[in-house]
């Protein structure tokens, strides 16, 4: 599955199922609104990790990203979730209230709208190719694998000794 759209759809379905599972797990133990909000937050954060490591992994360079770049992507991702949620709410209201479409159909249509918005923002902003070029990494995240939160170890380099300027080239070659 190399197509970002397919990976995005698979991730979206999986995160929807995760959201529902967490909601059902918490339902009956806490208020429904708390269960839904908790499920939303859990699914959103897992979604970022899956999106970073799988859905959009090819959008990152082959080198490691500094932790601050990953944190920036996470912040952008969470902001994009709020934008998509806004688009979902507006689409639901418009379709349900203005056009009179029944609730379940309105939810489905609003979900399609918010998924399109989410894909565009993720593709063009959060996981845009080269958008977050890294400088020297302070703490790095490997391209494939778990997050690395500790400082990288430094490798000692042996100093290179240059030949003195007054030595003829043929003498330096025999040295």
Description:
This protein has 175 residues and is an all-alpha fold. Helix content is 62%, strand content 2%. The protein has 5 helices and 2 strands. The protein has helices spanning 4-26, 32-55, 67-98, 103-126, 169-174; strands spanning 65-66, 140-141. Strands 1-2 form a two-stranded antiparallel ribbon. The longest helix has 32 residues, at 67-98.
How many strands appear in the DSSP assignment? 2
Structural class: mainly alpha
Helix-strand pattern, N to C?
A: HHEHHEH
| Spatial ordering of strands, largest sheet | 1-2
Task: Indicate the proportion of strand residues.
Answer: under 5%
Chain-wise SSE layout:
Blueprint lengths: L3 H23 L5 H24 L9 E2 H32 L4 H24 L13 E2 L27 H6 L1
Antiparallel strand pairs: 1-2
Question: What's this, in brief?
Answer:
With 175 residues, the chain is an all-alpha fold.
Brief descriptors of the model:
175 residues; mainly alpha; two-stranded antiparallel sheet; globular
């Amino acid at each position: 599955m190399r197509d970002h759209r397919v990976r995005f759809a698979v991730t979206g379905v999986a995160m929807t199922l995760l959201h529902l599972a967490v909601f059902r797990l918490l339902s009956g133990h806490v208020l429904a609104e708390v269960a839904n909000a908790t499920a939303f937050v859990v699914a959103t954060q897992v979604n970022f990790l899956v999106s970073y490591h799988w859905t959009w992994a090819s959008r990152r360079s082959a080198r490691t990203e500094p932790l601050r770049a990953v944190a920036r992507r996470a912040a952008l991702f969470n902001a994009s979730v709020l934008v998509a949620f806004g688009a979902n709410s507006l689409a639901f209201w418009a379709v349900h209230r203005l056009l009179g479409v029944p609730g379940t159909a309105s939810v489905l249509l609003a979900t399609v709208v918010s998924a399109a918005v989410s894909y565009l923002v993720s593709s063009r902003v959060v996981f845009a190719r080269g958008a977050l070029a890294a400088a020297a990494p302070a703490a790095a995240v490997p391209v494939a694998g778990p997050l690395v939160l500790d400082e990288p170890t430094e490798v000692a380099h042996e100093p290179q000794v240059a030949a003195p300027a007054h030595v003829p080239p043929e003498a330096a070659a025999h040295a």
